[in-house]
Amino acid sequence: MSKRKIVAGNWKMNLTVEEGVALVSGLINKGLQQKVSNTEVILAPPALHLLTLHNLVQNSAIKLAAQNCSDRVSGAFTGEISVNMLAGAHIEYVIIGHSERRIYFHESNISLKDKVDLALEYGVTPIFCCGEPKEIRIDEKQDRYVFRQIEESLFHLSEEQISKVIIAYEPVWAIGTGLTATPEQAEAMHAYIRKELANRYTTDTANAIPILYGGSVNAANAKSLFNQPNVDGGLVGGASLKVDEFYQIIQAAQ
Ligand code: 13P
Asked: Of 198, 218, 215, which is closest to residue 206 (Cα–Cα)?
């Protein structure tokens, strides 16, 4: 598949604004002043950093994502940030349903469905995360598990709406553990997700939806993962915090 690749960096709860500015400046100086051929680069810093970094990435290859958004538009929800606020700040993407949000903040497939709907309504592209925990993988029930996640949060969408979604497959057992899924394991799940998308929608639509892999992606393993036919790029955690390594991962997507 020769469609665009996407390399996204999820900083999680790391880096001060100053450190974030240094990291982004480092990436821009390395070669992200202008578009990298056929690869989209997205960074998801903490929400506090978004406005400062938005100014910094103007006219560069870097786009920004929020790591989360509320499932409501506005109101008395202390500490939350709504997707219309993101849209108002010209933030183009939002990660929805990261496993850390599901595990630590008890986000359910149903509340994530509402977040996806709001993101699409306000024109912010959802990067929807799915992926099974270790015990489900050991029981070999990962297909069924991931199917339910995408069915319950995405399959109510119209064909036009689903075409605007990015999916990230992030097996929980591979996140922050150094235990990467093998390229074969990643490819098998991505092909499965695409097959289910084609069953629900059309083959053309399914083929056009980017499916990123996340879970201990680094400069050494990125190429073998990105070379898989159904792997359209990566969602990178720890390795996105280092200029040289993240830049190498971006290059591995070429
Ligand atoms: P790591 O790359 O640190 O395993 O994190 C992956 C991830 O959760 C990206 O969203």
From this structure: 198
Specify the residue for token string 């989360």.
Answer: 68
Active site residue 90: no
Contact 119, 153 (CB under 8 A): no
- Give percent of the chain above pLDDT 70: 99
Extract the tokens encoding 221: 């393993």
Q: Report the CATH number of the 5-252 domain.
A: 3.20.20.70
Contact 175, 216 (CB under 8 A): yes
Q: Is the CB of 218 under 6 A from ligand 1?
A: no
Category of 31 on φ-ψ map: left (φ > 0), alpha (ψ -120 to 50) or beta: left
Testing ligand 1's pocket by substitution, the residue of 235, 246, 248 carrying the most ligand atoms inside 8 A of its CB is 235
| pTM for this entry | 0.97
What's the CA-to-centroid distance between 95 and ligand 1, angstroms?
Answer: 12
Distance (angstroms) between ligand 1 centre and the Cα of 99 equals: 10
